[in-house]
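Everyone, describe these structure tokens:
***
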Amino acid sequence: MSLENSLSPLTTPAFPVAMRASEWDRDGFWTFADAAKEATEALAAQKMKALENMPVEALREFCTQYRFFTIEYISDLALLLAKLPFGGLRSLLSQILSEELGEGDASRAHPAIYDRFLASIGVPRERLEVGLPENRRILGALTKELWERDAAFGVGLRGMGGECLCQTYLSVMFDHLRLHPYMVENADRIDWEFWTIHTGEEDIVHGELTRAAIDRYIQNEPGALPDLAQGYERSITAWNRFWQNIFDACAPQRSVVS
């Protein structure tokens, strides 16, 4: 599958992943990764604009569905760590995992912080476990692939795909989410902590550190490039499908904001 097919319907850089191992080099990989990130950001901006006018109940449901990514990302990151050799990338991702889990304080785990955001916008607790079946399937398939494939594929799938692409999507989501009339009117009582963490300087630094650590990993393991690129493209495809399913469920058509 090509990057162009993964990110349609937008026009995207045509950089094929289906290359022979001998054709990959470090510069070519980062050209691919940068083009993918740029195209993903454009696609996210196109889609997330709908958040500004979404009915309040649909907005609550939309935000609730993202919750399942945060939970599965943590479990998958732990699995990836078990596969990686000792080194800088393993140490960095273990630090990120610790932060995601609250560094020993369960109340500070990022899913718990996100749940407090959901509660503050009126999502009832009983809705928190109701995920879209198709997205549950997508997340389960990623975990299965992570388990079955080698570490390099996992680095692309959940190292780059989870950490770097996640920050891209969340930043765009937050830009539009906070413009919704309900969010503006209730800004003082909404718990914004999750967004402060994941759309601020801290998460930008995480992305930069992750990229640098993966670059060193590539330098040490140049033969890993094809699998790493394949894992990254798989993440792009799954991530875009995940969001499209949420939009299909929550924003099939515009209606008046309540």
